[in-house]
């Protein structure tokens, strides 16, 4: 059985900064998941992924990051995507008394 | 002291930096694809992680001088976010560099003879050693000249740039192995037999998804045979190692599949062939290196100030009891500088903290700093008389937590907060455990808690008294606990206890284990002694039995 398509947002890392980026409906790359284009249809995902993979000077490792539509907007559908979207959870600087 | 620079000369490093600068430019202008560029950046220690690039810099045998540590601090401020992460393999990792800045970072590292070469990829990695080398009272001989010899031989060695898999080597000169040697692909333990110095060689150790304790392949190798013997081991591995399956490509699998005996026979055959090629130049070099690592001249000092502070100040006393280690010189001590403040991120140090330690080493510590496999720093040669001043300065900068070897001295890998391979978080689990245990950890005593965020086991969870492995179970973080691991000379792999725990249950579970130990222990027993005596059952019961679960 073919793997079931999972809705999501095209995501990658920015070539220069390494930051997590998402592909928006207007073809721009944005830094917020909920500003990315939410794709629910496999054929559309293929078209958009092709566009992303054709921009190696911007995006590294593009893939469909699992997401879901909720009352409060588009949210990651897996905790890994949660961390990608929000950055490290650890209050790193606590150790040094700086914020 | 000798700089880590024999064949890794400034010219060589400059050439490598410029070469990489060109590769970055060609990646950006589109002449290199990511698939072409990835192996090139990895050859320079540059990974792409979850939210950013990550640059891994080698600290050969964990030894730094003050100028080098200052530069590590400076790099973190100029091109990163003002901190660095010290790892269990004596590296420092920067978590936020920009691709376009990395050539400059490497250039600045080269100014102090540091680099990121062979910190990734299927090469011979940074050669690690006992972090207390050249200082601890229990040492037979300083392992760093041997580590440096191996490093010089293996760096940029054309035959070892594309091995079947990464290859890690560790060296110790002390019977109390502090370098986790048996978890390495190859370990060199310096030993003495009938008054002669030689090497016990172990092969096939490693952690990851198939943890294996290294096996003794030679119990006494004469000094002059070391490099030809290593070449022989590598040549057998290079031929017989499996390249068909990444998970079976490490030498531990080759040794297990072939059997130690057969492997050893083939190594001896290769050795007979290779040995005549070594004319003795390596032994001259070793002698030179030994001169370079000669023990520092330490003037006798009156320890009265230490005794007085020890009597007068209970905070100093508890730090001294927990964080000092015996030095070969009577009036001196080794000071462990904790990078594990309660609730902090294990192994992280801010730029200003790095500068403080560099400065203390300059003023009180023979200019030397070490990086430990436990992700802490060390001032290896401090006169006892200077310890009160050193302590006060460390304390003022959050570096004087009295927990070296205790429950909150946790090893944790970056886990899902940074690492692209992670299946769960490690750092916040470590932070919460360390906060929870802060209060009674001195009563609990020596305890090793180690946490990895996936099966690769970068956090050495297999070797913890309590090991924690974070997994993804159906889209939810789940933590498997192992018990009874030991990273010392008689290394043991911990055993799984049973079903894993959810993220918000795992800290309670660890607390129940520690409570069980306090209830069960006999006078003078460490956690591992109690487990060895009682077996794991009472601890499993503490973890899983209903009444215990609710009691926590
Ligand atoms: C964040 C980036 C990192 C990545 C991508 C990474 C990747 C890996 C992988 C794939 C393995 C398994 C290798 C194998 O079994 O063949 C491994 C093992 C290991 N790594 Fe890491 N690691 C990272 C960070 C670290 C850190 C921060 C440390 C130290 C705290 C570390 C220390 C180790 C150790 C000790 C092992 C096990 C040694 C062995 O398998 O023999 N790594 N790592
Ligand atoms: S153990 Fe896994 S999660 Fe942790 S650093 Fe290694 S690869 Fe990453």
Main attributes?
heterodimer; A: 99 residues; alpha+beta; five-stranded antiparallel β-sheet; 2 helices; 20% helix; disordered C terminus; B: 552 residues; six-stranded mixed β-sheet; 19 helices; binds protoporphyrin IX containing FE; binds iron/sulfur cluster
Can you walk me through this structure?
The complex is a heterodimer of chains A (99) and B (552). Chain A has 99 residues and is of the alpha+beta class. Chain A contains two helices and five strands; from the N terminus they run E-E-E-H-E-E-H. Chain A has helices spanning 42-53, 79-86, and strands at 8-14, 20-23, 29-30, 59-70, 73-76. In chain A, strand 1 (8-14) and strand 2 (20-23) form a beta hairpin. The longest helix of chain A has 12 residues, at 42-53. By secondary structure, chain B is an alpha+beta fold. Chain B contains 19 helices and 21 strands. The termini of chain B are far apart. In chain B, 55% of the residues are buried. Mean pLDDT of chain B is 92; it is low at 1-5. The chains are: A alpha+beta (99), B alpha+beta (552). Bound molecules: protoporphyrin IX containing FE (HEM) and iron/sulfur cluster. The site of iron/sulfur cluster has 13 residues of chain B, from loops. Iron/sulfur cluster (SF4) binds at residues 413-415, 419, 421-422, 452-454, 456-459 of chain B.
């Amino acid at each position: 059985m073919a793997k079931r398509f999972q809705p999501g947002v095209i995501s990658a890392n920015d070539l220069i900064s390494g930051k997590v980026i998402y592909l928006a409906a207007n073809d721009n790359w944005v830094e917020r998941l909920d500003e990315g284009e939410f794709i629910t249809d496999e054929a559309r995902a293929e078209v958009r992924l092709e566009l992303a993979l054709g921009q190696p000077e911007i995006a590294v490792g593009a893939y469909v990051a699992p997401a879901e539509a909720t009352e409060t907007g588009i949210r990651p559908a897996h905790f890994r995507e949660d961390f990608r979207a929000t950055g490290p959870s650890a209050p790193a600087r606590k150790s040094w008394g700086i914020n | 002291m000798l700089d880590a620079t024999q064949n890794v000369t400034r010219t060589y490093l400059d050439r490598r930096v410029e070469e990489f600068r060109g590769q970055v430019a060609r990646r950006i202008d589109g002449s290199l694809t990511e698939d072409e560029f990835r192996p090139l950046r990895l050859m320079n220690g540059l990974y792409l992680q979850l939210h950013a690039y990550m640059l891994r810099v080698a600290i050969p045998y964990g030894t730094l001088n003050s100028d080098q540590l200052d530069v590590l601090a400076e790099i973190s401020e100029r091109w990163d976010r003002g901190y660095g992460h010290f790892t269990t393999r004596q590296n420092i990792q920067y978590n936020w560099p920009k691709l376009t800045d990395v050539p400059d970072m490497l250039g600045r590292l080269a100014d102090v003879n540091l680099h990121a070469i062979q910190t990734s990829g299927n090469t011979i990695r940074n050669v690690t050693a006992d972090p207390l080398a050249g200082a601890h009272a229990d040492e037979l001989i300083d392992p760093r000249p041997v580590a440096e010899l191996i490093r010089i031989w293996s760096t940029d060695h054309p035959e070892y740039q594309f091995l079947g898999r990464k290859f890690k080597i560790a060296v110790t000169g002390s019977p109390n192995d502090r370098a986790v040697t048996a978890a390495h692909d190859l370990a060199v333990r310096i030993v003495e037999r009938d008054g002669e110095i030689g090497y016990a060689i172990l092969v096939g150790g490693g952690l990851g998804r198939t943890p294996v304790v290294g096996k003794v392949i030679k119990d006494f190798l004469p000094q002059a045979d070391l490099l030809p013997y290593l070449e022989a081991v590598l040549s057998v591995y290079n031929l017989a190692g499996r390249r068909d399956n990444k998970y079976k490509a490490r030498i531990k699998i080759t040794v297990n599949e072939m059997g130690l005996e057969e492997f050893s026979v083939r190594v001896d055959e290769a050795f007979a062939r290779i040995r005549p090629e070594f004319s003795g130049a390596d032994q001259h070099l070793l002698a030179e290196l030994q001169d370079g690592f000669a023990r520092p001249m330490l003037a006798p000092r009156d320890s009265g100030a230490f005794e007085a502070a020890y009597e007068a100040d209970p905070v100093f006393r508890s730090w001294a009891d927990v964080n000092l280690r015996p030095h070969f010189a009577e009036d001196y001590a080794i000071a462990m500088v904790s990078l594990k403040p309660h609730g902090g991120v294990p192994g992280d140090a801010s730029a200003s903290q790095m500068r403080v330690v560099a400065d203390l080493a300059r003023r009180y510590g023979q200019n030397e700093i070490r990086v430990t496999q436990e992700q802490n720093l060390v001032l290896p040669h401090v006169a006892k008389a200077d310890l009160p001043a050193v302590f006060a300065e460390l304390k003022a900068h959050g570096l004087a937590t009295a927990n070296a070897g205790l429950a909150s001295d946790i090893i944790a890998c970056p886990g899902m907060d940074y690492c692209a391979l992670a299946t769960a978080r490690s750092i916040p689990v470590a932070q919460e455990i360390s906060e929870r245990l802060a209060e009674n950890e001195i009563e609990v005593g020596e305890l090793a808690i180690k946490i990895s965020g996936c099966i690769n086991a970068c956090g050495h969870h297999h070797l913890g008294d309590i090991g924690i492995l974070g997994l993804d179970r159906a889209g939810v973080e789940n933590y498997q606990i192992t018990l009874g691991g030991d990273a010392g000379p008689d290394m043991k792999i911990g055993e799984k206890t049973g079903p894993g725990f959810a993220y918000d249950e795992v800290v309670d579970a660890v607390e129940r284990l520690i409570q069980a130990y306090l209830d069960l222990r006999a006078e003078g027993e460490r956690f591992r002694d109690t487990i060895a005596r009682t077996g794991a059952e009472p601890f499993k019961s503490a973890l899983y039995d209903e009444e215990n679960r609710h009691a926590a």
